[in-house]
Amino acid sequence: MRIALLEDNPADAEQIRQCLTRAGHQVHTYGNGKEIAAELRRESFDLLLLDWNTPGMNGHQVLQWVREQPALQQLPVIFVTAEDSELNVVQALNEGADDYLTKPVRCAELMARIAAVLRRLNIATQTARPVLEYGDWTLDPRDKRVHFRHQEVVLTGKEFDLAYFLFSNLGRLLSRGHLLEAVWGMAVTVPTRTVDTHISKVRTQCRLFPENGLRLVSVYGYGYRLEVVPEGNQ
Amino acid sequence: MIRRPRDPVSRAVLGEWRWLLAFVLALGALLLHQGWLARVNNTFYDAALALYARPLTDNIVVIAVDEPSLAQVGRWPWRREVHARLLDRLTEAGAATVGLDLILSEPDTLHPEDDAALVQALRRNAHVVLPVFTEWRHGHLKETRPLPALADAAAFLGHIQSDPDADGVMRRVFMRCGMGYPNYPQFGVALLQSAGIRPPQPNAPTRLPATDDTDWFCAEPYWIPYAGKPGTVRQFSAAALLNGEVPAAELQGKIVLVGATASGLGDAMPTPVSGDSYAMPGVEIHAQLMDALQRGLLIVPAAPWLKVIYTLLPVALLLAAFLFLLPRMALLANTAAILGVLSFSAFSLRWPGFWFPPAEALLLLALAYPLWSWRKLEAGMRFLSEEVAALDQETSRFASLLPVAPPPPVSGIVDPVSGRIAQVRRASREARALRALVQQAITSQPVGVLLLDSTLTVRLSNPVMLSFLGKHDPAELYGLPAATVLAGWRCPDEAGWQNFLRALTRQGSAQREVTSGDGRIFQLGLTTVENLGWIVTLDDVTELKAREQERRRLLNFLSHDMRAPQASILALLDQHPELDEKTAGEIRAYAGRTLHLVSQFIYLARAENLQQEDFVDFDLTQCLHDAIDELWPQAQVRQVQLVRPDEAPYLTVHGDPTLMRRALINLIDNAIKHTPAGKRVVCQLELEEGRAHLSVRDEGEGIRPQDQARLFQTFSRVGDTTKREGSGLGLALVKLVAERHGGRATVQSILGHGAVFSLVLPLAHDD
After folding, report:
1. For residues A136 and A144, what is the distance between their CA atoms, to the nearest angstrom?
2. How far is the C-alpha of B302 from the C-alpha of B46, rounded, in Å?
3. pTM, whole model, 2 decimals?
4. From CA B450, how far away is CA B462, in angstroms rounded?
5. 3-state secondary structure (DSSP) of residue B444
6. B560–A196: do the CB atoms touch at under 8 Å?
7. Choosing among B551, B559, B560, B644, which should be mutated to test the A contact, i.e. which has the most A CBs within 10 A?
8. Average confidence (pLDDT) over B699-718
9. Cβ contacts of B566 on chain A, cutoff 8 Å
10. pLDDT digits over B24-47, tens only?
11. Least packed by Cβ within 10 Å: which of A51, A59, B49, B221?
12. Are A96 and A65 in contact (CB under 8 A)?
C-alpha cells in the first residue's frame, strides 16, 4: 500500500516508516506541508498520515486542503499529534480525518488504526447481516441476541443494532452522528445523548472491557471506537 | 354578570359585597315572612291615608246621640218609644233611607208597647236598615239579629262586624258576613242599597268555601279609604231632631245614620285618620265607608310576591350601584332610594290604590350603606395590613441600610384607621428609600447595566453603560429600543440585535460574547426580572480575553514543544535495538516520566482555567469505565485485580469529561501503585441523596493520618519519597477537578488497611 507521511521530526518519521515498511507498505515521507500537498496533486496514495505541527502548511491546513479536492475526498487520513488535548483531536475529526494517534506512536496501535480505516473502504452496504463471532461474543442478527461466554445478554432492539454495528466496525472510530444514522436512521431526530445512554448499556451488559479482550474507547465530544486489546497488554 | 376583577383588593371587596347582598336579601325575606314590622307598616299606612283627606258627599247625615241629647232625654239606653219618635221625624222630613245603628235584639219587657210603636215607625218609613251584630256564645261567634218583629219591619239588615288590626285600629271591613254563609251586606252597603244606589263592586266576587253553618263567616275585605278625621260628616244632635230644630231640607233625600257618638256609649273605634285624639264612632265609620264606595275608591294590598319584589329589588339595585359609585354618590343614592320607596308607597295608595308596605324595604335600605361602608372599610384595612406586613418583610432585610425614620408621633388616642394609614405611609417611605438604594446599587455597578421593559426598551442605565456606549446623559438612552442602542456593535446573530435579544430573552438568562464597534470584547449577560422586563449587563473582558489567549498559547507551547522531543527520544530508542538494553530502558523511563509530568501539568493548568461554558453533560459511569480500561494493562503488569462497579446507573454529570477521566485515572493509578501484587483495587459508583458517590479502595499500606491532609496538595509527596514514582500533581488534579465540578475529594485510611479515596459530585440538572 502506498502511504504518504507528513512528519518534520526525523526521529519520529523514521520510526513510523520502519514500522510500516516492516508490514510491507511503501512509505513516502515529507517534512513540509506544501511539499506533500504538491505531491498529492501528482501522485496517488492509499493513505495519508499527517503530523499536526509542520512547517509550510501544518497538518490541519493540509487536511482542509485535501478535503476540498474532489479527487482526494475518499483518501483515508489518520493524523498524528504530540498533543494530549482532545479539543484539537475532535476538531480534526470533525474536519474529515478518519482517525488519530498520539505520540509516542506505538507500532501495533498504528497498524490497528490503518486496518480499521481501510476496512471501511471494503465494507460495502451489506444487505444480509451475518452472524458475528468475536472472541467470547456471538451476535445473531436474526433474533437480535447477543451471547457472551454462552450466556445470553439482555438487550433491546436498538441496543443490539448498536452492538452489532460496533462489532462490524471493530477498531474503527465512529462518530456519534454516524452511529445515530446507522442505528436510528436519518429520518429520526433523537438527541445524540441517546447514543451515549445506549453505548453505556451495551458496554456494561456485553462486558466490553479489556479484561475480556475488547475495549470501548470514548472520544469525548466525538464518538466511540470498539477495539481489540493487543495480545501483549491483555 | 360582574366580571371577576384581577386585583386582590377588588376581589376582596367583591367578596364582601356578595356576602352583604346575600345577608340583606335573607334579612328581607325573614322580615317579610315573620311580619315583625307590621305595626310600623300600619303607621306608614295611616300616615299615607291622612295625606288624602277629602270633603264628604253631602247626601249622608248623621243623627248623633250625643251628650246634649243624653242631657235632654235621659240616660242610655233610651226607651224605644223615643227611637220611634226620632224615626217618625225623619220619615216626615223625607229622608231617603235611615240606618238605625242601635242594638235592638232584646224585647223591652218593661214597656212592650214601645216595641210595637217602633215596629209601626219602621213600617211607616219602610226604608230602615237595622244592624246584625255578633256575640261570643259557647266559644263560637254567633249572629245576633234584631227582634223578629223589628227585623221583619226593616227594609234591609246589614252586619256591623268590626275587624280591627292587631293594634286595635279599624282599617278594613268585610263587605259580606253571615252564619255559615255571608248573607248580610255590610251595614253601609245595605244603606246604599236601600237608598237605591248600587255601590260599585270593589272586589272580584269571592269564591266561597263550603262551610258549616255554625260559625260566623266573613268575605271580601275592603280597606276603607277614610275621607278625614272624626267629625268630617255632617251631623245633628238627636235632641235637636226631637225638638224639631233640624230643618227638613237638611234631611230630605238624604241617607241618615242614627247612632251613638257620646263618649262611652257606642261602638267608637280608633281609625287611621282619627289620630291619637279620639276614636271614631261606628256611625261615622259607616258614613266614610259609604262615601268611598259611592266615589268608587279602592285600596288593594299588594300580593305577597309583589311585596317580595318591592322589598328586595330596591336594596339589590342600590347595592349594585354601590359597586360603581364613590362613597358620596353612594350616600346620595341611598337617600334617594329611601325617599323613592316612601313616596312610591304613599302615591300608589291613592293612584291606583295599591298598598305596598314600605317598612321592610326602608329598613334594608337604611342598613345597606352603613353595612357596606363597614365591610368595605374592613376589607380595605385588612388589605392594608397585609400590604404593610409584606412591605415590612421586604424592607426589614434592608432595615440597617435605610435612613433612620423619625419616631412616630406620640398621641393619646389613635383610631385604627389613622394608625393603619400611618403604617402605610411609613412603609411606603421605606419602600421609596429602598428603591433609591436599589437604583444607587445599579448605578454604582462596575459593569454596564441596562434595565429593559418587556418591549426591550431602555428604562434605566448606569454610568458604566453610558461610557461603554459613548454617551454622557442617561436621557440619551431612555426610551430607545435596546436594538437601536447596540446598533453600532457587531451582533453575534445575523438576524440582527432585535432578534438576537429576543432569542436570549426566551432562555430566561444567558451570557454571550459580543464585540463593540471599536473591536473591544464584552460579556453580555441577560437576566429576567420577573413580571417586569430584563436586565442587560455588559462587562469589558477585552483584557481578560487577551490574557486568556496568552495562557492558551503558553499551554499549547508546553503541550506540543515539551512533549515532542520526549516522543522523539522514545522513537529514536525504538530504531536502535543495538543500544545497551539497560541504558535504553533507563532513557525510556526518564523520557516517559517527563512526558507524564508534562501531561499532568497541562491537565492541572486546564483544570485551573476551566470555563463553565465549555461544560457538557456526560455519563460518569462510562467515564469511570474509560479510566479503568486505560489502566487495565498496568494493573495486569502489577498483578493487581481491578474491580469494576457492577450495574452502575447512568449518572449524568455536567462538566469536562476529559479532565474527569484524567482525575479518575490518577486516582486509580495511585491506588494500583500502592497495592501489592495479588491484592485488589475496588471501584464503586453509587447514587446517594441526588449526588454521585465514587470511591476507589485499595488494599495497600494505608496513609498516616498526618499525611492525609497534605495528600491533595500540589507537589506534595507522602512518606518515602524515593520510592514514589508520582509527580505530586496527580491527586492535586483530582481535588481540583472535583471542586471545579461542584464536588469534593476525600480520603479515609487506616494505616496497614489500605485507603479509600472518594469523590462526591453533583448530578447535572435534568432539563
Report:
1. 17
2. 16
3. 0.49
4. 7
5. coil
6. no
7. B560
8. 78
9. 104
10. 999 999 999 998 998 899 889 988
11. B221
12. no
